[in-house]
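TASK: fixed-backbone design
INPUT:
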């Protein structure tokens, strides 16, 4: 067990304090919804397993063709189709507070997009980034494996001339006929890469889609401090400070997250924890070189009370999100 002082890190997504062992309620990690009819298999309860396996993001929504299924069955079980309706209701038209105040502005700033630029939004969900880009005159093509989320993106889009959405596998982007090699000025993957495995096919597909010197921004819950079921807040009564406990970090793990343990404990999605080096190294191996990194803290203030100052110190010092920017270097 590693005890991280409040001066170093934060990884709670919606609450300033988390109870150890409970599922986190981050923007894309706490869901309960009915299994949709489009699912080809049943979502099963998964046991934690130390490996880098499986969530897809893929088929084409505006096309009848199906993407070949290259991956084992357990690598097709953690897309978000079975929780799409709930997630769409949660995120809404403009995204959560984190999306609106932190993530979307940060991604647009790091990509430095301009009117007429072409953006590939990988694992786009219901198109929050695409709608924000359209307001700048950016052409966005979004892909996601969940048919229900692509349907929501199509319904919610504000400018069909600037927003296109397809059901496609993030690990097999070349199978989506709408994605042309070297077409895009930029790409993004927001709060989704921790639900996808393996990583390398995703990066290679993005590399192929980008123009030379095109940029990719990846945003995820900070992998150093936000580790499902292995990190938590702890109050130190003697020092009157809040610590972040980290029980494990270097081992990659597949972790099932119960979306609503009280009413439906069998409804799960998968989260794949990996150390930071896994992201940096696989990006570099795919020809995407990280040139910039930012660590973002939550903008949500803790409850007012006698501990407010200490809890707010944790919020301001311990990052919630990690944002990586990589450039197609060759």
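OUTPUT:
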């Amino acid at each position: 067990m590693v005890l991280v002082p409040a001066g170093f890190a934060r990884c709670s997504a919606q609450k300033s304090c988390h109870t150890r062992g409970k599922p986190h309620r981050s923007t894309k990690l706490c869901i309960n919804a009915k299994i949709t009819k489009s699912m080809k298999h049943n979502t099963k309860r998964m046991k934690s397993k130390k490996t880098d396996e499986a969530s897809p993001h893929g088929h084409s929504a505006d096309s009848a063709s199906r993407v070949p299924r290259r991956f084992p069955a357990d690598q097709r079980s953690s897309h978000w189709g079975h929780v799409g309706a709930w997630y769409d209701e949660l995120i809404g038209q403009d995204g959560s507070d984190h999306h609106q105040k932190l993530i979307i502005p940060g991604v647009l700033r790091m990509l430095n997009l301009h009117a007429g630029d072409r953006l590939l939004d990988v694992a786009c969900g219901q198109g929050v980034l695409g709608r924000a880009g359209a307001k700048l005159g950016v052409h966005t093509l979004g892909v996601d494996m969940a048919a229900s989320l692509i349907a929501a993106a199509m319904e919610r889009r504000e400018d069909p001339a600037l927003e296109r959405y397809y059901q496609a596998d993030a690990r097999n982007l070349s199978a989506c006929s709408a994605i042309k090699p070297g077409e895009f000025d930029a790409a993004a993957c927001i709060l989704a890469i921790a639900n996808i495995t393996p990583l390398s096919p995703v990066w290679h597909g993005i590399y192929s889609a980008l123009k030379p010197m095109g940029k990719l921004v990846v945003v995820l819950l900070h992998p150093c401090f936000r580790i499902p079921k292995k990190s938590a807040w702890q109050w130190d009564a003697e020092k009157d400070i809040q610590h972040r406990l980290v029980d494990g970090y270097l081992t990659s793990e597949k972790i099932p997250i119960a979306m609503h343990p009280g009413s439906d404990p069998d409804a799960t999605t998968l989260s794949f924890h990996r150390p930071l080096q896994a992201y940096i190294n696989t990006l570099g191996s795919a020809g995407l070189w990280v040139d910039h990194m930012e660590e973002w803290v939550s903008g949500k203030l803790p409850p007012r009370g006698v501990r407010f100052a200490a809890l707010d110190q944790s919020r301001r010092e311990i990052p919630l999100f990690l944002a990586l920017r990589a450039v197609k270097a060759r």
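COMMENT: Residues 24-38+45-224+255-306+319-328 form a domain with the Rossmann fold fold (CATH 3.40.50.150).
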